[in-house]
């Protein structure tokens, strides 16, 4: 089959690789019909390369048609149309029963001290072959796959694999009070859906984003927007009665603009041999923290910060005095996709499309054009906001 493979920093290719096969009775094989490039994939493309091996298959946002099922699979049959959540969970352990599927005790990547594996996301999360490919092996197929109808186009369902539930969870974690204001830093794909979810839930939403076309997209969905600049805290306080927003959502993460020290640390780590680079990432502060620090500055005293953007440093400097003095609550973590599907499936199937799932994709291209698409997406060229690959 053809698959998108990692070859080095800022280097991917589309190669012929062996087809996946059933390895456990609980496995299924799907034929991928749509698969997306996630903002998190760009971390592998740039920063987390020390955890990648040449030839690793990328991608964790796929959907498709069931081609084969293992002997123990009862809830799926050949021909079912399914979306595959990005995290791999068993559905029966304590964490899964608590709806913390990203912490699944059966599948945890214990050798790295991390949670549930993620398709196509480095040795940090299990080195599981990803979904930017023609076919995908799906472990724990009786639990993970989300069965969907046959009539609506893929684009109505595809984002249930990651970014719609990630955004929804982030808004839930933001604990916005009735009549409150939610500020979303970063209007990439997750930030777009988080902002729209906030509007759908009746909040005032202010999106912060330096890229004009991303601001324009959010404004189409009732979001107030501002450019990201050095006085953003003063402007937000002025817009919110002098106190700041009750809830702030960081949808940017480790590659934020305006963080020269973090940028230097990331590039320096990337120049080291992989074992040393891993130690630098695991023992040092290598995140760009401008957005997180801005979130701490602008949030109202007693407010909540929700973090959906991925961070990777283990010793990032944090303004603990401010966090403590302002009595700020913080909540974060990988999305527990299955936890939110019952809430979200009706919304993505709603003819009114309240979350605007049909208004996000800017580029739909063949799988073979993935290398060019990664570069365009990373560099924010050609008004690129979301890329969907068609195997």
UniProtKB/TrEMBL annotation:
<dbReference type="InterPro" id="IPR002328">
    <property type="entry name" value="ADH_Zn_CS"/>
</dbReference>
<dbReference type="InterPro" id="IPR011032">
    <property type="entry name" value="GroES-like_sf"/>
</dbReference>
<keyword id="KW-0560">Oxidoreductase</keyword>
<dbReference type="InterPro" id="IPR013154">
    <property type="entry name" value="ADH-like_N"/>
</dbReference>
<dbReference type="InterPro" id="IPR036291">
    <property type="entry name" value="NAD(P)-bd_dom_sf"/>
</dbReference>
<keyword id="KW-0479">Metal-binding</keyword>
<dbReference type="Pfam" id="PF08240">
    <property type="entry name" value="ADH_N"/>
</dbReference>
<comment type="similarity">
    <text>Belongs to the zinc-containing alcohol dehydrogenase family.</text>
</comment>
<dbReference type="Pfam" id="PF00107">
    <property type="entry name" value="ADH_zinc_N"/>
</dbReference>
<feature type="domain" description="Alcohol dehydrogenase-like N-terminal">
    <location>
        <begin position="25"/>
        <end position="142"/>
    </location>
</feature>
<keyword id="KW-0862">Zinc</keyword>
<feature type="domain" description="Alcohol dehydrogenase-like C-terminal">
    <location>
        <begin position="189"/>
        <end position="255"/>
    </location>
</feature>
<protein>
    <submittedName>
        <fullName>Threonine dehydrogenase-like Zn-dependent dehydrogenase</fullName>
    </submittedName>
</protein>
<dbReference type="InterPro" id="IPR013149">
    <property type="entry name" value="ADH-like_C"/>
</dbReference>
